[in-house]
Every structure is written in C-alpha cells, then in structure tokens.
Write a structure and sequence with these properties.
By secondary structure, the chain is mainly β. The protein contains two helices and 21 strands.
C-alpha cells in the first residue's frame, strides 16, 4: 500500500485541521563567490563568478549567464524534467529562494515507487539534478540547509515514519539524527506515525523544530536546532509533556508575526464533558520560557477545535469544525489570551486576512503548484526563505 503522499497528506490535513507550517527553512545562505577559469569543465565555476565588488543586495547567482551553468544532461530519462548537471561550485550560490524538491515515478499496477530523484531549483527556475535516492521508502523532505548541504527526510515504510539526515553532496545517510535529544522531547522523536519538521529560522539565530503526529499533524514536542547544527529540547516540553496523550494526539500552535512568541492549544480529549477546559500556553521564543494562561470565556468546548492562526501576541483565532471533523461546518473564535475578554465568534473565516509573517490556517508548503513537467510526479518541496 502506498504511503501518504503529499496529496494524500493535504487531504488528511483538511480533515483534522492541520497545524501551521511556516516557511520551512534552513539557515544556510549563499556561499562566497567562487573563482575559476576553466569554462568547459562543469566541476569548475564559470569565469563570470570570479570575485568582484558588488552591492550586497545583488544575488550573485543572478549575475550568471545561461552559458555559465553546467551543461544540460544528455540522455536523461524523458519522464524527468530537463535539468543541468550538478557541479560542486553551484552550492556556493545556493541560499534564499532556492528549492529542494523530490521527483517520484510510480508503477500504476502495483502502486509502488519506480524512481525517486532529488532536484535543486534556482530562483529563476533552472533545475539541477542531484542524485537518485532508494525506492524502498516513500521519501518526503522535512527540511534542508544549504551550508552545509544537508536534508532531513521522512521515510514512509507503509506503517511508520522514520527520519533520516541526508548529506546532499556525499549522499551519506545518518539513520538517527535526533538521537542526542533523548528524553528531552516527550515521547522521543521517532516512531510509528511521528515525524519532525522545522518551523524555520528565528530572530534568535536558532531554528525551532517540532515533533508531530504524522496522522493528525498535532504537536508532541518542540526542539531547537542550534547554529552549530546540534539539536536541543525546548523548555516548553515541561508544560506539554504532562498534557499530551500520545495515543490520542497532541497540541496545535502558531507563531506571532515577528516570530518571538508562540501559543499552544492542548484541547480536551474527544468525548470530554463540555465543561472541560482546554489548556493554553504562551512560549517566549527569545529566552525559551513559557507560561500557562487563562483566556477570556469561550462559549463552547474546544473538543473539535484545533488549528490556530493570526496570533498577535495577545489574541489568536482558533478554528472549529463539526463533530468528527465535519468540514461542512467551520467557524472560529478570536480568543483573548491575556485581557480576559469573551471570545468573539467568527462565522466566515475567509474574511480574516493573514497577518504578514504569521500563518493563517493549514499552510503546507507541499505539492506541484509551480511545476508544469509531469506535475503529478512531484513530491513535496521546500524553499529557503
């Protein structure tokens, strides 16, 4: 049986009220401009890439001509999109606006993977073919970084997800990249139906990552990726761990526009009495401290309310659905987290504009939206901000 592809997972997300995934990001930027004179060698940088004074606002890659790039692949599988050969010097230009994508072909009769290939896409749409990856797992990209070039991949086995770390140059695989976290993240960071995804680079210089349930997209724990590449559990797990039922699901969360604060909702379990209150936690992302808060009155149980969005530091909108995630009926509440004012019902969530830099609802950066060559064959892709 085929695992949950990006298309299937988006359908699941619409049913369960998917968590917010902000700009999926690494912290790598464009490297120093390389120098070289061998124009005919794809492994050498083009002459125009030699160091020269230029305003810092100019993207060095944009100064290259088409003829400066490595040659197009000859004899490439016609199913794949036309792409350039990958040359080591290209990594020196990779940074903001570059995309890592996975291209998959399937055998319709058996619904099994025939091929999986990683591609690097430049801001102007030029594709660079990296390498084939094994087909014994359905792979999805969790996050990636350009400096050093590394990606975190979710491997779907048909029954569970296991995350790996993949060196994008040597193709070396680290089977357990989160082992050092140990018990600092509740429930561990690998196992059946669990995955890890990054929220992105914060003003503090660290990346905030979360460990979530692969089926419900609810958060089970938070952790950091430090500037030196190491992972470290977040203190907010002290608050989340006693509240989360690892068989039932976890929390939902979102960030404020300047990404200095997060709010978490741990809703009542399904079937709980209507008087059962949800738990709200505000997480200071600058110093990694947290506090539980008691918001103003909310006129219903939040049993079927999950997705959060439009958090401004003092209030947030929570989206609710009918029983058993009936998406034919959706509404929201603007919840006052600190002032104590009663929640305001919002019957038409489409009237709420997204805050700049903050997420609305169900923001998944997946799928073939911008790809025209065999669009159904593209798995998920992530663009560095």
């Amino acid at each position: 049986m085929r695992g949950p592809s990006s298309r299937v997972r988006r359908e699941l997300a619409s049913i369960v009220g998917a968590l917010v995934l902000l700009s999926l990001a690494g912290c790598g930027g464009a490297g120093p401009e390389p120098s070289g004179t061998n124009q005919g060698d794809a492994a050498s940088p083009p002459p125009s890439a030699s160091p020269s004074p230029s305003p810092s606002s100019i993207d060095p890659y944009s100064q290259l001509d088409e003829g400066d790039l490595p040659p197009m692949i000859v004899g490439q599988d016609p199913t794949e999109p036309p792409a350039h050969e990958m040359a080591p010097w290209v990594w020196d230009y990779v940074g903001s606006g570059w995309t890592l994508a996975i291209f998959q072909t399937w055998v319709p009769e058996t619904d099994t993977i025939e091929s999986q290939v990683l591609f690097l896409e430049a801001p102007d749409g030029a594709l660079f073919r990296l390498f084939d990856v094994p087909t014994d797992y359905d792979l999805s990209i969790v996050g990636w970084d350009a400096s050093p070039p590394v990606a975190w991949m979710g491997r779907w086995t048909g029954e569970s997800v296991w995350d790996i770390e993949l060196d994008l140059v040597t193709e070396t695989v680290n089977e357990d990249p989160f082992a050092a976290l140990g018990s600092s993240v509740p429930g561990g960071v690998t196992g059946i139906g669990r995955d890890n995804s990054d929220v992105g680079l914060l003003p503090s210089g660290r990346e905030l990552w979360f460990h979530y349930d692969y089926w419900s997209y609810e958060v089970l724990g938070m952790f950091w990726r430090n500037a030196d590449g190491t992972f470290e559990g977040s203190r907010v797990n002290e608050a989340l761990a006693p509240l989360i039922d690892y068989s039932e699901g976890g929390a939902t969360f979102t960030l404020n526009p300047d990404r200095t604060s997060a709010v978490y909702l741990v809703p009542p379990e399904h079937g709980s009495p209507s008087s059962t209150a949800a738990t709200w936690i505000i997480h200071n992302l600058v110093n990694d401290t947290w506090e539980t808060v008691n918001p103003g009155p909310i006129p219903q149980s939040l049993e079927w309310c999950r997705s959060l969005g439009h958090y401004d530091g003092t209030s947030v909108i929570v989206k609710c659905m009918g029983p058993n995630w009936d998406t034919s009926s959706e509404w929201g509440y603007r919840v006052d987290l600190v002032g104590g004012a009663p929640a305001v019902r919002i019957d038409d969530l489409s009237t709420i504009a997204d805050n700049p830099g903050s997420a609305g609802f169900d923001h998944f950066r997946e799928g073939p939206e911008s790809r025209t060559h065999h669009p159904d064959y593209w798995g998920n892709f992530i663009t560095l901000p």
